[in-house]
Amino acid sequence: MQLNHKGSIATALAGATCALLGQSPAHADTDSSVLKDWKFDTAILYYGETDRVSLAEGVISATKTNNDDSIFNVKLVLDTLTGASANGAVPQPAVQTFSRPSGKDSYQVAAGENPLDDTFRDTRVQVASSWMQPFAETWRGTAGINVSREYDYMSLGVNGLLEKDLFQRNTTLSAGLSYQFDSIDPVGGKPTPLSSMLIPSDNSDADEDTGQYSKNGSDNKTTMDMLFGVTQVINRRMLMQFNYGLSVVDGYTTDPYKVLSVIDANGVTQDIIYENRPDTRTRHSFFWQTKYALDSGVADVSYRFATDDWDINSHTIDSRLRFNISDRSYIQPHFRYYQQSAADFYQPFVNQSAPLPMYASADYRVGEMTAYTVGLKYGRKLENGHEWAVRAEYYQQDPKNAGFDQPGVLADLDLYPSVKAVILQFNYHF
Asked: pLDDT tens digit string along 13-53?
């Protein structure tokens, strides 16, 4: 299971934006000389897909502001995932049998059902830390490190951000860089790209000399991210931010647990093969955000366009509208819309009569799709200065047919089922 939970260097820019709008969280009311300069943020999150993956996550973040205005932050994240994940194969009018990732067992999928592997489970622990240091009056530098570990995946990263204030601090220029090293050690070993999935009962037929069915070893990848941004105070109520991001990935980008169906002219599956993706990816992103202070709240709207050499183009619109109910409480509706095109190597299946491509993936996450999130957040500040908030959201992802014919038996089957999920989160700040 590949999960790449890594902090973005844009986080520091978001913090600067909040500060300019005067939305910094209140300091905790405490007499302790040890904790008086510390702020703590805690959160519990639940994410649950219908009949698929469920996530439970706990986060605690501690921030200390020093006398020289430098800021130290340390964060611990613990999450667990369970449930079923689409393996990439197409449904069939008959029962299908697949190998478990370990290669030592198998599972069956009922006729007409979308193939899901119900062994999707893991526990992840992440620790991240950063230090922000002002210098030369209008300059700030931030350096950070993060480590993440789960059963089959380890990630190590460093990042840095440099900021410069101009024009009486009404303009902030930012430049950031991060480097991430990920090590992938798949359960059962790394499969040979585009090789056949071997059902455990057929192990005796594997060709050990050619390695056609081999699954062994691990791999790694590196990710280099660069960010350039400008944050501008437009007037006493409005602030805007513009960012350009460049991401370069090199190494193992394939999901070792995803497969494709090889079908005949009637749409009947003849073989199951492992996917293969290019070992490099270059991505460009352009981000714009506007925050506007209302008489009784804040309007926050952003747009992001991203494009990469996998031919995936995406558009994201995100909006939040905070209404202050009183001096101590608020509600915040949230709406997010996302749309992306399919990768040039995406295909829902492989035709037996066609030559085997160099790269292919049936993972809906690199296919054409739209998605939206709608939700509501309620927050309240207590008399002792502590704050709490609860958020409830509904998420739906709708994969699309990117122009592929569905021959024979596939014409009457749903190859692009929607993914629906609920999100619940509780935050406490002190």
From this structure: 333 333 333 333 333 344 455 667 899 999 999 999 998 99
Task: Answer whether 44's CB lies under 8 Å from 426's CB.
Answer: yes
Q: What φ, ψ does residue 64 adopt, rounded to 5°?
A: -120, 125
Cβ-based neighbours of 117, under 8 Å, separated by 6 or more: 84, 85, 86, 87, 98, 100, 101, 107, 257
- Distance between CA atoms of 362 and 88, rounded to whole angstroms? 5
Q: How many whole angstroms separate alpha carbon 58 and alpha carbon 255? A: 26
CB neighbour list of residue 405: distance below 8 Å, 6 or more residues apart: none
How far apart (Å, rounded) are the C-alpha atoms in residues 333 and 319? 8
In the predicted model, is pLDDT for residue 401 greater than 50?
yes
Residue pair 83/120 in contact (Cβ under 8 Å)? The answer is yes
From the list 399, 354, 413, 365, the residue with the least C-alpha distance to 258 is 365
Rounded mean pLDDT of 276-280? Answer: 98
**pLDDT at 111 > cutoff 90:** yes
